[in-house]
Each structure stands twice: as structure tokens, then as C-alpha cells.
Structures
1.
Amino acid sequence: MLTYYTATTLDGFLADEHDSLDWLFRQEHDESGPFGMEAFMAGIGAIVMGSTTYEWVLAHEDGPWPYAIPSWVMTSRDLAARDGGDLRFASGDVRPVFEAMTAAAGGKDLWLVGGGDLAGQFAEAGLLDEVVVSVAPVTLGAGRPLLPRRLDLELVESAVNGAFVSSRYRVTGPLREDRS
Amino acid sequence: MLTYYTATTLDGFLADEHDSLDWLFRQEHDESGPFGMEAFMAGIGAIVMGSTTYEWVLAHEDGPWPYAIPSWVMTSRDLAARDGGDLRFASGDVRPVFEAMTAAAGGKDLWLVGGGDLAGQFAEAGLLDEVVVSVAPVTLGAGRPLLPRRLDLELVESAVNGAFVSSRYRVTGPLREDRS
């Protein structure tokens, strides 16, 4: 199962135009509480992210690659690998990446870290099962969009964790277009 | 107290570029359940909306003006009044409108119906107390933005009502800018 697990502002931005996440990291929450990172990561066997997310991690994390599981970076550019991780670079169609991730995950689930357009590509390919969002009590008005596609979801569960409202959605497919 | 009470998509749009709300009206919910319209409207003594919202109501509601309380429309254009309502048109600064609404509301609260930019104008003037959003399980990727400003909010309460996750936020002010 592939889950897009992310934080977002109330108005649907992953980050502002400058990719700052300061508004996010100052929000009170419990990593071991509902929808917290600890329990989520315990079930994950491989991750995938776009190049902007990758470069954000490189810029903000010193030391070795912070994830101990196979990690794919989707990029059309030639990016340097951070030492200490099982990093694999890919470009183009997301389907072979999904297959390789599934093979590498040892029966565990897959995490799509971001960004929004990559999540949209997996959704369009019918490969995105879930969206789990933790909504921070902030509006930015502009920035990196959460999921720039027309999609129908189905609410599975929701809970408050500190300042966040976190919800799990099943991705049901393209938005039903019954425009009147 | 002025409350911006609205539905939105998970990615922060009030409507798509064609102002269609078909994605909204097919979502299951209980008007008398948590954050439902019935209990909310019982506490409201005056409403205000922008011209796009007003024209949407005119296009989608036959018969007389559907709100039985004093209703302000903020517009720089010359718009026709729908019969059967206490409709008042205004433009420019939102402060005198807020004062007139307060005087007309008979001690009850005020509802900002939409859209997002008008909510932003009231927030900038320090007059927006609350944002109550019901998030529909839909992404649109583009459209009319929920609240195109940089604001800090404070989560007060959250509940599920059918397909919606509804949350009440107190508006605490402009976004704290501690960018690193």
C-alpha cells in the first residue's frame, strides 16, 4: 500500500514559495500520538520523494541520510547522493518505481514523502492508496500545493494531535465530474 | 463575533475556476450534526459576502433572498438586489461594514459567507474572530482560494460530520515570521 503522509496548511500548502517550514515545526504535537510519525514509520519498508523534497532534506539534515530503508528520488536532474543511505534515483514513469519499491519493502507499506505533483502522478497511475494529512493551524495563501489534481477521496478516520487535525483518506479516483 | 464559516476542499479551494460546487453538494452530512448549518445559523444576526458569492447565490437560488437577516454584499460593481431580503451593498473599507453589521445583528454573531479574499480583508483589519471550515474529501488543484493570507490560527475543536472533517479555529493574527 502506498500512502502520501504529509503535513499541510489549512489552505493546502506543503511549504511557502521559499520552501520554509518554520510555520510547521513550531506547532505542538506528539510524535507518538494519533497519526504520529513513530507508528507510521514502523510499517514502512520503502519511501519515494521528488527532487525538491530531497533537496530540502539535504539542506536541513546534517549527517547521513536519515532514513534506514530503501529511498527513491524521482528527478530528471543529476543529483548527488547523501552518504549512508540506500538511495536510488529514477525519472519518468512512476509504475516501475512502484514495482521496485514494492519488491524492496519486504512486505511493508510504501511512503510517498512529497511533493504534491509526485503524489498526483502516482494517483493518476492508480497507485496511490491513501492520503494522510496533518493540517497545521496556518494559512499561507501561496506556495507548494498539497495535491494539484482533481480527485475524489473517502474519509476513513480523523483525530486531533496537539495543534493538528489529522485525517486518513482512501483515494477513490479521479473527481466525478457531474457539473451542472 | 465574526465567523468565516465555509466548506472547502482538502487542498483549500472554495470552488473550482468555473465556480462549480457539485463536488460539495453530493457529500453526505447531517445539517443538524456537529458544525451543521442549523445550530450555526441560529446564532447569527447579520451576514456579509463578496460579489462572486452573491452572484453564485442568485444563480443557484430561485425565489426570494434566502436569508431572513440583514445581508451585506461587498462589491465595487452595481449589482441588482434580489427581492425579499434586507440587502445592503457596500464597498471599500470593511470596518464601517463591520460596525453596521454589529449594530444590525441585535447582539447575535456575524457570518462571513465568503469568499476568501473578503475573509482576508476582515482578518487584516483584525475583525475576523473565527474560521470554521468543513473539509470535503476532494482535491481540485486549482480554483477559488480559501483564505489567501499568511495567518496564524489556533485549533479550538474538530469533529467528523459524514464525509466532512469540520474544525473551528480562532484567528490569532498575521503569521509569525521566524524564517530561518
2.
Amino acid sequence: MRTKAAVAIAAGKPLEIMEVNLDGPRAGEVLVEIKATGICHTDEFTLSGADPEGLFPAILGHEGAGVVLEVGPGVTSLVPGDHVIPLYTAECRECDYCLHPKTNLCQKVRATQGQGVMPDGTSRFSTLDGDPILHYMGCSTFSNHTVLPEVSLAKVRRDAPFDKICYIGCGVTTGIGAVIYTAKVEQGSRAIVFGLGGIGLNVIQGLRLAGADQIVGVDLNDSKKSMAERFGMTDFVNPAEVEGDLVPYLVNLTKGGADYTFDATGNVNVMRTALEASHKGWGESIIIGVAPAGAEISTRPFQLVTGRSWRGTAFGGARGRTDVPKIVDWYMDGKIEIDPMITHQLSLEDINEGFELMHAGKSIRSVVVY
Amino acid sequence: MRTKAAVAIAAGKPLEIMEVNLDGPRAGEVLVEIKATGICHTDEFTLSGADPEGLFPAILGHEGAGVVLEVGPGVTSLVPGDHVIPLYTAECRECDYCLHPKTNLCQKVRATQGQGVMPDGTSRFSTLDGDPILHYMGCSTFSNHTVLPEVSLAKVRRDAPFDKICYIGCGVTTGIGAVIYTAKVEQGSRAIVFGLGGIGLNVIQGLRLAGADQIVGVDLNDSKKSMAERFGMTDFVNPAEVEGDLVPYLVNLTKGGADYTFDATGNVNVMRTALEASHKGWGESIIIGVAPAGAEISTRPFQLVTGRSWRGTAFGGARGRTDVPKIVDWYMDGKIEIDPMITHQLSLEDINEGFELMHAGKSIRSVVVY
């Protein structure tokens, strides 16, 4: 079939809107009509050329929601008409990782996904001239239609609006999941969130959901304060306005250090501050942000020997097919908010404008609606 | 009273055996006759002058066992005749740390202990001329008699031999506790232990106790192999004999990385190797060793984001008054071994010989018997 997509032709160039060919689903695959997709910093990271693993030409986008149109042979868990959220972290429920209680990093389709192809080693996308176009993060939601492995789709309720729940495909789950699934924050905890962008805001509402008593937000941009407060932030700190070192200031503000700290900046110096601002004896610091290639974190081992732990999270520790439908329920039940974070809605033709809004810091999330 | 002690007069000098004055126990304090004491690397670290927090003159030693001779006013949990193991990590059972489920770092006597004095700010030790001598780690087991806070003493069964259970005061608990209390290693796990000295051997027997299926020991000294095998090591790796990088070698040996890795070297480069040799998705790396002042650990944050966690342990995460008596039981019941690790027994007069044996790598543990 033919469909319309925004294609990343090469690193550093704007996406090009064009018609592309899409082959139908093969064994274990599913054809999905994407109804809406968010534009995430990870798409930007790859498009810019900064991602050393970025491949071109490709159809980016990994934060979508849509409807199943057709299933390939052997697909048993989905039927046409099902509403789905694509998963860049699959959940096969049979690999060593899926069967291990401490991780969500399913390896079933990992290797081929990283190469921009389906598990059989080929791409379903091509130009009208027949040249292959690569998939991206196993999703390629910047195409109106896409093909995914069955294990890379979470089936969700049909009454949830696509233009909001698409955000659960990455940002919402990454932030809330870091709190609920990775850190397992307890009622009454004190926490610090570094970076109040789209991920940081979702960490904050995750902390509110978990019943944290103190939720400190740290950002160099004062304009982030009011939105963060809306999602549950109790204290705002602009490091530029703190006299002296930031770590002792935050330790004092949290009465000895935070029970949990979260880095949502990707800056390795901030990651160190986050670890050291966590409480002696039991503080846990969770890295969410993606650092530039080659960057390293460091600290004195004494920080760990005296009881702090340093951890990380990918996709919020969520098992996609199991947890994403629950998060959709939380949204529909009003336990979490998404609407205020979707600051811009665009058509596919205007998708590059979404990247510009991100660069300018004007959007929390821009969503493309097909 | 007068007692005999090995006194650390100044950094870098041998201990001097002399008679010293010891004041009786004040409120909340206990007079203990030390029957045996181990000589630990931490004593050596302080005596050498490398410990930036080392104070002199002081009576070192923190790995002892003895008998209560007298209790001060208000002491309720001990009576004369009780057998005890001194604790450099107290357990008051009422501070914020003792009441927190995730830490053993009781803060009750921490500040004064670090200054070499009792909680009232004074020392019980002095020279026969009346000049004060400082306590060390709240224990000072290199004196035949010593005074400790009640909260710094674990009461243990009376049939356990002092010259063996003194080792539970530090090395045994640190190694076994890192496995049982800090890492909480599960049955069937794969683990790697870096450094096969006294701590490393106890990590190994802790792993055997926990039911680990694979226990890899890593040491540059081949002579460590046979003793480590006796305690449960299943695979030995000498990094000097590995071609290429050590991390992929260890990852391959453990079928994808170890579930748990332990650093018992204090070398920050080894700490990084330990983290990176742990399994993607769920590997936990525990730092036990004490690094030189100012040394830093580092890694790419990607190591954590893909599911590894970096933690540390002090006194094996054990709550001294609660857990040390249990470990004594484990020894008496034959669940753990201590005897083969006590390679040398000395009189107090020969204590400096114990330090020389340690330097020469000839001892696992030397014990002074009074």
C-alpha cells in the first residue's frame, strides 16, 4: 500500500513529507494506522546526527497511538479494530529478560530493531522508486501507516483519545514509570527532580501519584515553575539563584537528602549532583536522561558505601504490553493528567514546526494528528 | 584501672605496647575485657597515615570479642559476664537510621566516635602520665580492657570461642553481610568477587550460603585460588592471564554477566570493571572496598540506564546487635567457616608482627589473643 510519511533523509536535514510504499504484515507482524504521534527529544537526537547509532533514510517517531488494520499469520493477541500503542521496548513474555523479575528490557526484537529492520531482517518501507527506507525504534510513527511485531504493540481501551494517549508511548510512561516501577517510591517520601521538561513533569506527577510528601523541582528556567506546580511540585530551586554549592542546599531543603532523586536532563554533572543530594544510608538516584556519546558519570565511592544507590531506567521500567494499558486507565480515570502537557497540535505537513518549537523551548509536547 | 594496650603513638610508627589508664564506664557505657582481636586492613590504613581522618595517639583495633566486666548507670541490656562483640557500627534502635528499613548506619554515636571520644566528648584512656589517648572506631580492641557505649556491643552466646568469633566483628560480617543483607542474593545466582583477601573469602562463603550457582573469584595472585575454592569459589580468573579486555571475558564466563558483583579491592578501576561485568537489565554491583582519599569511580550512564545498579555496603549492611549474634550462631552451627581463615595467632607483645604478615600477604587473618 501507499501511505504518507515524514522521512528523515539524512542527519541534520528537515523531515520530508512524501508518499512511501508500505508492505503488508508478514508472520507475527501487524499493520497499524497511526492516528496521532508525539514528537520527542529522542527523535530530535537522532535527526540531528548526534546519535551515533542513527541510520538514514528512516521514518522516525516512536510515541504513537492507532488502530490495527491487518494482522499477519500467527498473530493471536490482536485483531483488526483493536486500539494500540506502539512499543519501542517490546514485551515478548518468553525471553530471559521478560522472565526476569527485575527488568523490562525484552530482547526479542532488540537486535533487528537497532538496525532499522523487522525481525526477519528486512524493511517494510520503501520509496516510490523502490529504495528501502528504515524503520526507527521499531515504531516509525511519523508514518500514517506502519508495521510492527505483535510483541511491540500494547492493546488499549477504545474510548481513550489517540491525540492524548500517544504520549503514553514514551514520555508519560518514562516519567511516571521511573517513580512507580523503577524506584518504587513509598508514600511520604521526599524527592528531587532535575529538569522540568516533558519527562520531568511526568516524574513529578508520578511522585504525586505515589504519595510523596516533598517534591522538589530543579531547573535553570524559572518559567517551568508554574506548570510543575500544577503537577505536584512543592518546592522550586533555580540553581543559578543558589549561593554556594547546590548539593548541601538541596540536602538541607530535604532534611538530610532526598529519599529519591531523578535526573531528567541527560547532563552527567547533574547526574552526580542528583546522586549526592540523595539521603545518606538509603537515598536512591535514578538516571532517566540520555547523555551525549562518550560522556561519563563519576563520584567518590564513599557516596555509595555510605548507602546511596545509583540506578537507571529505560521506558520507566514499564513492561509495555502489561503496564501501558494500565497507565491509559489511570489517565481515563483522572489519576494522572496529560492534556495540559500537549501544548501544540500539528498536521503531518507541519511536523518540522514541532521540532522548531522544541528547540525554542516553547512546547512541552507537540502532537501530530493524522 | 590499669590495663595493657598496643598504642598507636603516631602515623607510620609501630604500635607500642604499654600500660595505660582506663577510667570506668559512665552512664550508658560498658567495661569489657577483650579476649581476642583480629588485625584488619582498616587498622593498617589508619596506622599508615593514609586515612585522612586518622587521629593520634590512639588505641586501634575494631575486631574483637570479650566479656562484660562492669556496666555504667542506665545500662539495661547487658550484665557482667555477658559475652560481647564490639561494634564500630552501633545499633541504638531509636535514631532515624535505625528506624529506616534500608540502612544499618546508626548515627547515635557516630560524631563522637569519629573524633576518638565517647559520646560525652571525653576519652576513657590515658597514659600513666595522665595524657589522653583516643579511642578508635568506638572499639579500641588493641587494649586488654576497653569501654564502649552499650549500643556498640552485640551480646553473643557464651560457648563461642573468642579467638574465632572476634573476626565476626568486622571481616566475616562485612563479607557475608554484603551478600545476605545488602545484595540479598537469591538462590541460583551467578556472582563475581574481585579480590580474594579476607573480605573476598567471606563474600564467597556468603554466596555459597545464599545458594549461588556460579561464584567467580578474580585476583592477580594465583596463590589465592585454593583457599577460595575451599570456601565455594567455582571459577578462578587471573586478569593478568586474560587476553583482551576483562569485562567481555567475565560477561562471557557468566553467560551474559553476573547477577551480582562485589568489589573487595578498594581499587576504583576494579569497581568499574565490577559494575560493567554485571548483567544488563538486572546486575547489581556492590562496593565493599575503601578507596584511597580523593579517588573517584566513573562509567558511562548507559551502563545504569540499561539496568545495572551501583551500590555500596558498610559492615555488610548488618545491624550489629541484631545480626551479629545470628552470624555467631551460623558459625557455631557449621553454616559458615572461620577457623581456616585465622592463619596466625599472636600475643599482644607481637602485634606488630601481625601487621608485617599482612604487608607480606602471608596471612588471611592474624588474631591477637590476650
